Amino acid sequence: MSIRESTAASVRRVAIFASTTARPTTERERERRRIAIMCLPFFALATVAGFVPLAMLVRMSVAADAIWIEGWSLDAWRTLLTEPTYRRVAWNTVWFVGLATVVSVVLGVAVAHALEKYDLPFERVVVAAVSFPIALPGIIVAILVIAMLGRQGLVTNAIAAVTGTSAIDLASATAITGLFLGYVYSLVPRATMVLRGTYAEVNTQAEEAARSLGASRWETFYHVTLPEIRPGIAAATILTFRSGLAIFGTVLLLQSHYVVTLQIQREISVGTYRPDVAAAIGLVYVVFIVAFTFVGLRFVRTDTVTL
Amino acid sequence: MSEVTLESLTKRYGDELAVDGIDLTIRDGEILGIVGPSGCGKTTTLRTIAGFETPTRGRVRFDGVDVTHVPPEERHVGLVFQSYALFDTMTVRENVAFGLKMRDVPQRERRERAGALLEMLDIATLADRRPTTLSGGQQQRVGLARALAIEPHVLLLDEPMTGLDAALKTRLQTEIRDLLADLGVTAIYVTHDQEEAMAMCDRIAVLNAGTVEQVGTPSAIYRRPANAFVANFIGNSTLLTGVAADGRVDLGFAELEVAAATNGTVTVAVRPEAFEFEREGPISAEVSSATYLGDRTQLTATLPDETTVALHADAAETYRTGETVSLSIDDTSVHVLE
């Protein structure tokens, strides 16, 4: 079959597919139409709010005039690749969010274990307390950190009173530790919610079998539970890392560590206004997130967890 | 292997009494069946013996040693579950060797012992497979090998045949019973299937509402049920009321030559096979339903006093609803309840 014939056959198949979806006669075709009707609104929205703006970002990043989007230039990309600041921001972002992710997932495993394995008193209150930071804007999280660890902070002044040290010296809200605390507080609920779903699938009788065979609680967790929740841990890691990369409000207020979101904000601030560089950073960010998700999904059994 | 003793075992969850003062001894090397309806406390009893439940009152002893508060991992108990509960992330061999690994048995010895058990259970060729790739029967053999690998004081089997097809169930029953007998394992076999319990167990304990109604050999439980509950739960019985006097029981429509402990009104348990079909028997009954079961036809019939009885009839004969049949009762096959 020639290329022309093959193309014509493909076009014919697509046309038939579209036609039968629009006017179904079999149950399979009716099912396809239902799926199309359910998904079309989202894809319309995604096109307007996602795909088209993304194409605009690509164009902006190679525009000679990024404001009016005119002409062609690779200056933004050259800047991104050659100026050490951007490499530093990239590294800052990866290690800081990576570490916050690891700590959040470890805490999430512990909380999910407690919630799913034991009959806790006031379980609903515990679930509400664990999950509510998801609904908190990042800027509020930053304010909470200042309220606890700032110069007038509750914890700062309590430690100062006990140790006799100056509260000013102790204040860590706007140090990297304060920011880290804010990140972890925001991310733990995300990890926990994914892991709770995974824990619900864990075979409790297999755990009991392990204990009857002589395994301690820790050995049971290590040999039986952990391998079972590994896909959930992978899923929680992907979700938490992606969420951590997107945190903006907290880092905007605390400003103790330059990460990608803060850098984008700097690039579009009055004074340093460079929308082409901001667009290039945004594209690198999107490509990185997509690639990371695809790689991460190799470790996730999609029948046990969803992202 | 050990003798297991339950002393006044009681387990309460809030206001709910799951096990109510059970006293029971499982002899060394014996297979004891625990049967009863759903919610009667059989699984709670098993979990208490395994150490996953702490009794509200009473004690569990292995060979006289009080293990009531010993954690499960130190009890040396083998568990076989209905759901198999295998470790899906390990191979069959790793599953079987797991208990030995937890006991720090050297790897070479672990491998040898696991291999021997897999041979014994006829699944040696599956050693390197994952449990999820096996059939239900194969998985249950792995579960049994895994539990036996630690040479447990007692083997606890919680409805291990439920979910298997009838032919496989029958084959496994024979194999497991013979294997446990050969190894001399003390085993407690929980099931809701009384036929399975009769096929597998040396003795059976019938539980109801957290208490033991009767303990005995399968034939004793079947032939001499202690009360109406056991008579109805183990097999099928018709309970007839009669008046006992001088070694006879008058049922109103027939008289039986059976000895009762006391004179006066008594309840007599009559198994379906105790009714004999006669050309001209002393009892007339009207067939109210007939179900063909292949090896027999199961009838329900109404006696002159409106009592409904269960009958087993020759499968070669045809019975129609409304037909009158003539019956007698085999005196030696009935039992007067105390």
Automatic annotation (TrEMBL), chain A:
Membrane topology label: Multi-pass membrane protein
GO cellular component: plasma membrane
Segments passing through the bilayer: 35-58, 94-115, 127-150, 170-188, 239-258, 278-300
Cell compartment(s), UniProt: Cell membrane
Keywords: Cell membrane, Membrane, Transmembrane, Transmembrane helix, Transport
Residues of the ABC transmembrane type-1 domain: 90-296
SUPFAM superfamilies in the cross-refs: MetI-like
Source taxon at top rank: Archaea
Gene Ontology terms describing biological process: transmembrane transport
Database matches in InterPro entries: MetI-like, MetI-like_sf
Family that this chain belongs to: Belongs to the binding-protein-dependent transport system permease family. CysTW subfamily.
Name of the molecule in the record: Binding-protein-dependent transport systems inner membrane component
From TrEMBL, chain B:
Xref: Pfam families: ABC_tran, TOBE_2
Superkingdom, taxonomy of origin: Archaea
EC number(s) on file: 7.3.2.6, 7.5.2.13
Reactions mediated catalytically: D-xylose(out) + ATP + H2O = D-xylose(in) + ADP + phosphate + H(+); L-arabinose(out) + ATP + H2O = L-arabinose(in) + ADP + phosphate + H(+); tungstate(in) + ATP + H2O = tungstate(out) + ADP + phosphate + H(+)
Family per record: Belongs to the ABC transporter superfamily. Carbohydrate uptake transporter-1 (CUT1) (TC 3.A.1.1) family.
Subunit-level organization: The complex is composed of two ATP-binding proteins (XacJ and XacK), two transmembrane proteins (XacH and XacI) and a solute-binding protein (XacG).
Biological role: Part of the ABC transporter complex XacGHIJK involved in the uptake of xylose and arabinose. Responsible for energy coupling to the transport system.
Record protein name field: Molybdate/tungstate import ATP-binding protein WtpC
Biological source species: Natrialba taiwanensis DSM 12281
